[in-house]
Write a structure and sequence with these properties.
InterPro entries: HhH-GPD_domain, OGG_N, Oxidative_DNA_repair_enzyme. Keywords: DNA damage, DNA repair, Glycosidase, Hydrolase, Lyase. This is 8-oxoguanine DNA glycosylase. It comes from Methanoculleus chikugoensis. There is one protein chain. By secondary structure, the protein is an alpha+beta fold. It is built from 15 helices and 7 strands. The strands form 2 sheets. The chain has a 5-stranded antiparallel sheet. The protein has a two-stranded antiparallel ribbon with strand order 6-7. A hairpin with a 2-residue loop joins strand 2 and strand 3. The protein binds a DNA duplex through helix 6, helix 8, helix 12 and helix 13.
DNA sequence: CGCCAGGCTGTGC
DNA sequence: GCACAGCATGGC
C-alpha cells in the first residue's frame, strides 16, 4: 500500500473526479475505486488529505490525476460569474485526469447518442473479451485492447460488445491506428484546431468526440465539448437565443463563446458545469 | 410503451 | 451552406 499526502492548498476530490463521467473504467466498491489505466490494475481511495493506492507508483498517480496542476489558479481563472462560481463551489477538487489517447478515443466513439452506463458497459466488454488480463491487488482485470487487437476482431464479435452502429467506426479507427502507431504523437504535436481537424477525419468522430479526446487525453484545456447537457446549460446561462437542437453552426458558436468567456482553461469550466448539472450528482 | 442519452453520417435541397 | 432521417442500445 502506497500513500500520497495531498497538499492543503491543492484541493482534490477523488470521488468527484472518478464519478463525473470523464473516464469510463472506474468502479467504486467497498470504499475503493478500482480501474485499469494503461495496463495497470489500480485500487485507490481517499481519506481526507491522504490518497492510498496499490497497483501503480507515486509518479503515475500524480501524473494521471494531474496533482501538480495548480487547480485553485485554474478555478479562479474560469470563475467569471455567479453561475460558474456555484459549480466551482459544488465540485471543488474535481480534476481532469490524463487519459490514454487510444482508450479515450474509442470510449468517446462509443459515447455518441447514448448514456454513460452504456458507454461503460461497451468499454468493459471490449476489455474483458479482447484485452490482456492483468492481475492486480483486487483480482483479475483487463487492459483496454490496443489498436491491433481491436482491428482483428470480426465485425459480429465487436457488435456483440453492444457497440451498435458504432461498430464499424471502432474497427476503422483501430485499423488506422494500427497502421499509424504514431497517430497520438502526431495529434499531440499539432496546434489545437489542427489536432481537432485531424481527429475529425476519423469516421464517427465529430466535433463533440474530438473535443472530448483533445480535453481528456491530450490536455488541450481550451477544448469545450458540447453535449446536450452543456448546450442546455450554456443556453440557459449565457446564450438564451440558442435554438433547440445543436446544429454545427450552433456548436461552433457555443464553443467559441465559451473559449473566449472562460479563457484558456474553458475545458475545466465545461467539466464543472457538466458535473454540477442535476441528475448525476450521486455521491459515490 | 415512449422519450432521452457526453452525436454523427449520409442524403437532399 | 442547412435540415433532417436514421441509427443500436439501455435507463427511466
Amino acid at each position: 500500500m502506497k500513500t500520497i499526502e495531498l497538499r492543503p492548498d491543492q484541493p482534490f476530490d477523488l470521488d468527484l473526479t472518478l464519478s463525473c463521467g470523464q473516464a469510463f473504467r472506474w468502479e467504486k466498491t467497498n470504499g475503493w475505486w478500482r480501474g485499469v489505466v494503461d495496463g495497470r490494475a489500480v485500487r485507490i481511495r481517499q481519506d481526507g488529505s491522504r490518497l492510498m493506492f496499490e497497483g501503480a507508483d507515486d509518479g503515475f498517480v500524480r501524473d494521471y490525476f494531474r496533482l501538480d496542476q495548480d487547480l485553485p489558479a485554474i478555478l479562479s481563472s474560469i470563475d467569471r460569474d455567479a453561475a460558474i462560481g456555484a459549480a466551482i463551489r459544488e465540485c471543488r477538487g474535481l480534476r481532469l485526469v490524463r487519459q490514454p489517447p487510444w482508450e479515450c478515443l474509442i470510449s468517446y466513439l462509443c459515447a455518441t447518442n447514448t448514456n454513460i452506463p452504456a458507454v461503460k458497459r461497451r468499454v468493459a466488454l471490449m476489455a474483458e473479451r479482447y484485452g490482456r488480463p492483468v492481475d492486480g491487488p483486487s483480482g483479475r482485470a483487463y487492459a483496454f485492447p490496443g489498436p491491433e487487437a481491436l482491428a482483428g476482431v470480426p465485425h459480429g464479435d465487436l457488435w456483440d460488445c453492444k457497440l451498435g452502429y458504432r461498430t464499424n467506426y471502432v474497427r476503422e479507427a483501430a485499423g488506422y491506428a494500427a497502421e499509424h502507431p504514431d497517430w497520438a504523437e502526431r495529434v499531440a504535436a499539432l496546434p489545437f484546431e489542427e489536432a481537432r481537424q485531424a481527429l475529425m477525419q476519423l469516421r464517427g468522430v465529430g466535433p463533440k468526440a474530438a473535443d472530448c479526446v483533445l480535453l481528456f487525453a491530450f490536455g488541450f484545456f481550451e477544448a469545450f465539448p458540447v453535449d446536450v447537457w452543456i448546450r442546455r446549460i450554456v443556453g440557459e446561462m449565457y446564450l438564451p437565443d440558442l435554438g433547440k437542437n445543436c446544429t454545427p453552426a450552433e456548436y461552433e458558436r457555443i464553443r467559441r463563446f465559451s473559449r473566449d468567456y472562460f479563457g484558456e482553461y474553458a475545458g475545466y469550466a465545461q467539466e464543472y458545469l457538466y458535473c454540477a448539472r442535476g441528475p448525476a450528482r450521486r455521491a459515490a
